UniProtKB/TrEMBL annotation:
It comes from Macrostomum lignano. The keyword Nucleotide-binding applies. Residues 17-270 form the Protein kinase domain. This is Serine/threonine-protein kinase ULK3. Its main location: cytoplasm.
Length: 421
């Protein structure tokens, strides 16, 4: 940390950074984009808080945000890189998230596909599990405080820990914090806080992702308060085939005692074990290594089982990789293991040796291998449609199609694993 200098108005002057634009302003801060001077050219967000605008309470909140962010290190939480100050301002130098916030993301799309919601929910759940294990409660989770990285496969990052603080597991704060639309009823009614508050907010955010509006969205403040305080359970539209429908009910259950972290983290829709993450990639790689070893040792049945299992981790791990080159390498590996598993399947299940067909290209070879399975063929055809849309420049549609196909293929791989195990 270091001292900086700034004028009273306009962009600040922060040592080692060039301000390149204004990202926006919140209740007590203005946020700028900046580039680190020198070789790295790292892009950051600088949150500038005027000391004058701080009451004692907000000063305390900001100090908590700084102290807390400094200790947190998680791929789905905005990283605090450093902080500097001058006579008039405190500047938080934060990891830059180029995809803006989740509220804007939802509004632009009206609502999100179930496969995307599942991926976002997995990321939120990973961050929440991390916070929960460190006894940290955010207390102001809302789509505006969830930022996104850029690119075709954006990742969520929880931001704005201005209201968060460490809670002893059974203690309750006595001050109303957070935003009403996403606030747990026990806070509004009894001003009671606990780690269960964040779970409620996640349930409401999930609802908004799936249906395009928060369940208690109201015309007037009174109406909103009435809905929050009502004893009725949150009603989730009974949309057919919506597997994620149950999760808002688990998370946003009215009595805090029935809101259970273990049930939430263990929910089959969230499927945290297969959430795109460093661990998921590592698990997939280590299973694939074991599969190759079993394969070369002639243990075909075991190799088949391990390839299948490895794929259930490697396919979602594709979403975790940021580097295009590593993604491509991983995709090649996945095709390779899929082909080998298909070949072994015929060996294991039919007991007759069969050489994999030779096709002109990798794609043709894959189609050839998948021919006997109508479901896989249907998904692969959709992937061809994805390529077509991509060539027409319909990127959003192409991405949605690709995600759906990956999810379907993953389901199929899982069902094969169940059938084999
Ligand atoms: N790390 C970041 N990367 C990119 N944009 C950011 C970052 N942090 C904040 N922003 C953007 O800057 C703007 C202001 O953020 P800030 O956190 O000060 O306020 P807020 O969360 O919108 O409002 P409030 O603090 O009143 O709840 C928002 O549009 C936000 O998306």
């Amino acid at each position: 940390m270091a001292a900086s200098s700034a004028g009273s108005d306009g962009p600040p002057s922060v040592p080692q950074f060039n301000i390149t634009g204004r990202l926006g302003a919140g209740t007590y801060a203005t946020v700028y984009q900046a580039i680190r001077q020198g070789g790295s050219r790292e892009v950051v967000a600088i949150k500038c808080v005027s000391k004058k605008s701080l009451t004692n309470t907000s000063k305390e909140n900001l100090l908590k945000e700084i102290e807390l962010l400094k200790t947190l290190n998680h791929p789905h939480i905005v990283r605090l890189i450093d902080f500097v100050w001058d006579a008039n301002h405190i500047h938080l130098i934060l990891e830059y998230c180029s995809g803006r916030d989740l509220l804007r993301f939802i509004k632009l799309r009206r609502c999100l596909s179930e496969s995307l919601v599942r991926r976002f929910l997995q990321q939120l759940a990973l961050a929440l599990r991390y916070l929960h294990s460190r006894n940290v409660v955010h207390m102001d989770l809302k789509p505006q405080n969830i930022l996104l990285t850029g690119g075709d496969s954006p990742k969520l990052k929880i931001a704005d820990f201005g209201f968060a603080h460490h809670l002893k597991s059974d203690s309750h704060a006595d001050q109303v914090r957070g935003s009403l639309l996403y606030m747990a009823p026990e806070i509004v009614v009894d001003r009671r806080y606990s780690p269960k508050c964040d779970l409620w907010s996640v349930g409401i955010i999930l609802y908004e992702c799936l249906f395009g509006r928060a369940p208690f969205a109201s015309e007037t403040h009174e109406d909103l308060l009435r809905k929050i305080a009502s004893p009725d359970p949150v009603s989730v539209p009974a949309v057919q085939c919506l597997a994620g429908r149950e999760v808002p009910l688990t998370a946003a259950s009215r009595p805090p005692s029935s809101r259970d972290h273990a049930a939430f983290f263990g929910h089959s829709f969230i499927d945290l074990d297969h959430a795109p993450s460093a661990e998921c990639l590592e698990k997939g790689k280590s299973l694939a290594l074991r599969a190759v070893k079993a394969d070369s040792g002639g243990e075909l049945e075991e190799a088949f089982r391990l390839y299948r299992l490895a794929l259930t981790y490697l396919v979602p791990a594709l979403h975790y990789e940021d580097s295009a080159q590593k993604k491509e390498q991983l995709r090649d590996r996945i095709y390779e293991y899929m082909s080998r598993a298909e070949y072994l399947q015929s060996e294991v299940t039919q007991g007759r040796p069969k050489r994999p067909p030779v096709a002109e290209s990798r794609w043709n070879r894959l189609l050839e291998l998948c021919k006997p399975d109508q479901d896989i063929m249907a998904s692969l055809k959709e992937i061809s449609a994805f390529n077509h849309k991509l060539s027409l420049g319909a990127h959003e549609e192409a991405l949605a199609l690709f995600e759906t196909c990956c999810d379907k293929l993953l389901e199929l791989i899982r069902s094969y694993n169940c059938a084999v195990m």
